[in-house]
Specification:
215 residues; Rossmann fold; 5-stranded parallel beta sheet; 5 strands; 53% helix; binds thymidine-5'-phosphate
Length: 215
């Protein structure tokens, strides 16, 4: 008899604009998946490893003008590269599930809007940094942009970070970019984030139910 084969874990990314309730939903999703007897790691981007958390401070802190769009896109790609290589890949290989608060689709949406960089450019950086790795499922939480903005402002006491502080038009373009990914890519699902938290969790679970079935 050979050694037992470890079944690779599943990788889920959670995306959406600011203030859509990602943290609450990620905690609920992780609790549910743990109940199904899988080991789950919750992580975030930019961040998740020591180096990537340092890049997070560099890229989200400081003035709006601190980084030009190309440098900003490279920094997000560098943070992701470290995160994938040191944390996400080893966890999946050892059979754990990984839920990441944001991943490549945030770069495609945020750095893709008004930066002069195309989706192909951003995916090229991702190919170099992280071998183009994609999640098994990407859940995009969507809420009316005005409601989401007021929730985010309340949460952050009106002290937005470099990216959050951009205009309402920017954030609505980001939302439209997320919608366009879901229209073209089956791994990407839009989830209505309005209403009670439990109802939102139920919608998310529907979108991952196939992943929970034995392979
Ligand atoms: P959050 O942790 O509150 O979601 O904030 C992270 C911010 O960074 C958010 O404004 C989205 C932005 N971001 C990008 O612009 N590009 C990226 O690739 C990622 C992961 C995040």
């Amino acid at each position: 008899m050979g050694a037992p084969v470890t079944v690779r874990g599943r990788f889920i990314s959670i995306e959406g604009g600011e203030g859509v309730g990602k943290s609450t939903q990620i905690a609920a999703l992780a609790a549910f998946i743990t109940q199904q007897r899988f080991e789950v790691i919750v992580t975030r981007e930019p961040g998740g490893t020591e180096g990537a958390e340092i890049i997070r401070q560099l890229v989200l802190g400081g003035s709006a003008e601190r980084w030009m769009p190309r440098a900003e896109a490279l920094l997000f790609a560098a943070a992701r590269s470290d995160h994938v290589e040191r944390l996400i890949e080893p966890a999946l290989a050892s059979g754990k599930w990984v839920i990441s608060d944001r991943f490549i689709d945030s770069s495609r949406a945020y750095q893709g809007v008004g930066s002069g960089l195309s989706d192909t450019d951003i995916m090229t950086l991702h190919q170099i940094g992280s071998r183009g790795m994609l999640p098994d499922r990407t859940l995009i939480l969507r809420l009316d942009t005005k409601e989401a903005a007021s929730r985010a402002a309340a949460r952050d006491q009106n002290q937005p970070d470099r990216i959050q502080g951009r205009t309402e038009i920017f954030h609505s373009d980001v939302d439209m970019a997320f919608v366009s990914f879901a229209e073209r890519e089956p791994r990407v699902r839009l989830v209505d984030a309005s209403g009670a938290a439990d109802a939102v969790t139920a919608r998310l679970l529907t979108e991952i139910s196939d992943l929970l079935e034995p392979a």
